[in-house]
Amino acid sequence: MNNGRGYLLTCTLCMVLLLSGCSGAWEATKKVGKVVMDSDIPVGPASDQPSTVRLILLAEPDMNPNEKGDATPIEVAVVYLSENSKLLAADYDQLTRETLEKTLGKNYIDHQEYTLLPAQFKPMNPIKLADNNSYLGVIAYYADADRSEWKKIIKVKGIGHHYNVLVHVRANDIELRKEEE
């Protein structure tokens, strides 16, 4: 009689272990399926994930004054760089939208262009940075570049960070503010 009970207990214990093992395997299979179906799901620790930048573009009502002193729309380029020396050394005329990539050479990763109207507030969706992204530069194409502070650069890390960056376009200069989440 004890033998039958021991056998039953052993079988029950084996079934419980087997079923609990299956549920873990099933959960793992479901997770893998989700990652395969949605490549935006991060895999691994946050410190190994690409950094993200959420830009907030803010234009003052009196920005980019023309010869009459009236505020006018402005073109802004946000430039992603592996190194900043070429952007720092470049003149305004060397950084046109057509020559930007050529002027910055191998330091250039990518860029985005925006047009801002006076008094405009424009929050952007997060952008994933490249692993080798070390700097974020902003170029504002002012009507009077000689009397404007038209470029700024901030340091970023391409992996493991989440940044909120305010690009504040004023009458004759731009301000960059970076905060980490």
UniProtKB/TrEMBL annotation:
Q: Which Pfam families match?
A: T6SS-SciN (PF12790)
Q: What is this protein called?
A: Lipoprotein
Q: What are the leading ranks of the lineage?
A: Bacteria, Pseudomonadati, Pseudomonadota, Gammaproteobacteria, Enterobacterales
**UniProt-listed PANTHER family:** LIPOPROTEIN (PTHR37625:SF5), OUTER MEMBRANE LIPOPROTEIN-RELATED (PTHR37625)
Which InterPro entries does the protein's record reference?
T6SS_SciN (IPR017734), Type_VI_SciN-like_sf (IPR038706)
Task: Show the NCBIfam families listed in the entry.
Answer: VI_chp_3 (TIGR03352)
| Keyword terms of this UniProt record | Lipoprotein, Signal
Organism annotation: Yersinia pekkanenii
Signal sequence range: 1-25
